[in-house]
Amino acid sequence: MSSHTDPGALPSPATPAGRDGLRAILAEPQRAVIGLDFDGTLAPIVADPEQARAHPEAVAVLAALAPKVASVAVITGRPAEIAVRYGGFAGVPGLEHLTVLGHYGAERWDAVTGEVTAPEPHPGVATVRAELPELLDGTGAWIEEKGGRAVAVHTRRAPDPQAAFDALRAPLTDLAGRHGLIVEPGRLVLELRPPGMDKGVALLTHVRELSATSVLYGGDDLGDLPAFSAVDDLRATGTPGLLVCSGSDEVTELRKRADLVVDGPGEVVSLLRALAERLT
What we know:
Elements: H1 16-27, E1 32-36, H2 58-65, E2 71-75, H3 80-87, E3 98-102, E4 107-110, E5 115-117, H4 123-136, E6 142-145, E7 151-154, H5 161-178, E8 182-185, E9 189-193, H6 199-209, E10 214-219, H7 225-236, E11 241-246, H8 252-257, E12 260-262, H9 264-278
Parallel strand pairs: 1-2, 1-10, 2-3, 10-11, 11-12
Antiparallel strand pairs: 3-4, 4-5, 6-7, 7-9, 8-9
């Protein structure tokens, strides 16, 4: 379900449920949660995840939107501290209602306090990390550290990225399973992390904590599907929601389930700007 954003215009979702969600947000914004993925949604996808940064206009737009809603929650697989740094979210006036839920909600950073709260890391992550170099030798894949709470294997810079991804999926799933972890596939990345937390759990928990009456969630990758399902669950129990896909030809499943498809972080920012302007 797609629609494109015109500068300054608030696009109409392509589905009745999406239109209901948008109407609910506009009617009572102070009880709305705006949930957003980071990489691919607020920040363009880059070959080296350490070089990822939020879209240049994202912080200003979020600062305009956040005071008008119950919460803006950035929900990411990255460590919360890294997402805050790469997003440029710390110390920004207007972002007092911003929360970053890192490691799929296992970590939480609130703009008001500037502090990260988190449980102890799963011991399997360190064990898996120690075994990965031998398993990846010669594949062209490389390892991204995620603060001891997860580890990601990227194939985007391998000679044949998709072939490397396909070849590694089974052995990495076996390795993760032996140490009590799961594998989360994404856009040419396989993340090994503890079970029990995903973006859906994180979003549902946040929405319920705030007694929100509407929700928007925007994402771009397979890891965002649990959050899409969470919004579906909320809709089924009477909380309207809007699902936004930050368009990607690499992940068609998300596009098919979205109420609104926009063309990457630039158009996500345009959508959020238009929403903030409507809430003035």
